[in-house]
Amino acid sequence: MNKKQILAKLVSVAKKDLELAIEAQESASSFKFESDMKQESKYDTRSIEAGYLSSAQTKRVEELKLELKLIEETPFYEYQDGDEIALGALLEIEVNKLKKNYFLASTAGGTMLEIDGKVVLVISLFSPIGNAVIGLKSGDVFELETKTGQREYKICSVK
User: Fold this and answer.
1) CB 89 within 8 A of CB 159
2) The whole model's pTM is what?
3) Are 7 and 61 in a shared domain?
4) Residue range 117-138: average pLDDT?
5) Does 48 share its domain with 108?
């Protein structure tokens, strides 16, 4: 599995999300000025609500721009045996006798990507797993409390 492919796909997803958010923001912004948004009584709040929607969409666009920038700035480092896990690591972790692939990023946690026929889950540094693996090495074991109880994780490989 290639980390450059993962980063390229993450950038592509982020750009698509940003593009859709910009379209939604432009639509919401123009909607608040349409003639049927004119207040018909003191209790009519359509125009105010359209303004709130437009403002929220504008905020979302700014968040997505920042997310894209953070993804583009993810360091690309080829890990050697014994290196500590940090941002940009591609991990294979065993949990409940199943091996899963994770990519450690500063944002976009929860994004699932398919690379070379394998599924990679992007985990944020701020997620429980992301936070737990920082500074660990291949072969290390860690535990996390989950809804179903204590769960043990083993880091099988770091790339």
Assistant:
1) yes
2) 0.85
3) yes
4) 96
5) no
What is the CATH number for 107?
A: 3.10.50.30
Shared domain for 8 and 68, answered yes or no, is yes
Structural domain for 17, as ranges: 3-72
**Nearest CA to 124 among 142, 143, 104?**
104
DSSP 97-119: TEEEEEEEESS-TT-EEEETTEE
From residue 143, give the alpha-carbon distance in Å to each of 76, 92, 133, 140: 27, 16, 10, 10
Closest CA to 133 of 76, 2, 125, 77: 125
121 and 153: one domain? Answer: yes
φ, ψ for residue 106 (rounded to 5)? -80, -15
Number of structural domains in the chain:
2
CB atoms within 10 A of CB 84: 14
Q: pLDDT tier at 2 (50, 70, 90 boundaries)?
A: confident
pLDDT, tens digit, for every residue of 12-50? 999 999 999 999 999 888 876 666 666 667 666 777 787
What is the C-alpha separation between 132 and 126, in angstroms, rounded? Answer: 9
* Helix, strand or coil, per DSSP, at residue 34: coil
Amino acid at 154: K
Residue where a domain stops, chosen among 72, 98, 132: 72
